[in-house]
Design brief:
The chain has 211 residues and is of the alpha+beta class. The chain folds into 2 domains: 129 residues, Immunoglobulin-like, CATH 2.60.40.290; 38 residues, no CATH class. 18% of the residues lie in helices and 28% in strands. The strands form 3 sheets. It has a 5-stranded antiparallel β-sheet with strand order 1-11-5-8-7, with no helix packed on it. It starts with 5 loop residues before the first helix and ends with a helix. The N terminus is likely disordered.
């Protein structure tokens, strides 16, 4: 491969780094659920009633996510959404007002809400970065407070998250020939880092550095 001139390489790297710095951060604009996949059928929630405060009409639950799929699920992407609350008759809306029964409850300690106002909770991350197939997450404790003091109700939950995609090996590009200077070797390492992080592609690199 033809050896590249250092000024050309430096100009290209500078342009890439400038573009990264001025790139707008849109992570706080979209709802977290919009960026995740509904894992219905792949992950389930085990709900255990752990306590009840009759004075405040508050119920405490432990939630555990079980990965029922053959895929690795990214642990820090997993959230549990309180999808609905049903009454004794199995209805999720009030018979007269047709409003969600969920609106009659206070959810204590939620991490946020979806665009349609449903509370969600982040699943605790253990020692592994992934939730392996047929394994359980760490338990998550939540509190549901019943403002109307209805004694019988059932919460229903749904899991959202991302699965771990298998890594695809990428061929290494030999940018610098043997005997090159220290500066060329440093440039080579920087370019390899940009390629690895996906900031630039191999095609963009070749086009930008063609003589």
């Amino acid at each position: 491969m033809r050896r590249l001139q250092t000024p050309t390489v430096q100009l290209f790297i500078g342009a890439v780094l400038f573009a990264v710095l001025i790139r707008p951060d849109t992570s706080s604009i979209a709802s977290p659920v919009d960026q995740l996949t509904d894992l219905t059928g792949k992950a389930s929630v085990t709900v255990t009633l752990t306590g009840r405060d009759n004075f405040n009409s508050e119920y405490r639950y432990d939630l555990v996510v079980r990965n029922r799929s053959s895929d690795l699920l990214i642990a820090d992407s997993l959230i549990i959404v309180l999808e609905k609350i049903t009454n004794l008759a199995g209805e999720e809306r009030e018979p007269l007002k047709s409003e969600p029964i969920l609106n009659r409850f206070d959810i204590v300690g939620q991490d946020g809400e979806t665009d349609d106002g449903k509370p969600f909770f982040r699943v605790p991350v253990g020692a592994s970065p992934d939730l392996a197939p047929l394994t359980d997450s760490l338990p998550l404790s939540i509190r549901i407070r019943n403002k109307d003091y209805v004694s019988v109700f059932t919460p229903a939950f749904r899991v959202y998250g991302k699965k771990r995609l298998p890594a695809e090996p990428k061929p290494s590009i030999n940018l610098v020939q043997p005997g090159s200077s220290t500066q060329d070797r440093q440039t080579d390492r920087l370019i390899q880092l940009l390629l690895k992080k996906g900031i630039i592609t191999e095609e963009e690199w070749r086009k930008a550095t063609q003589p």
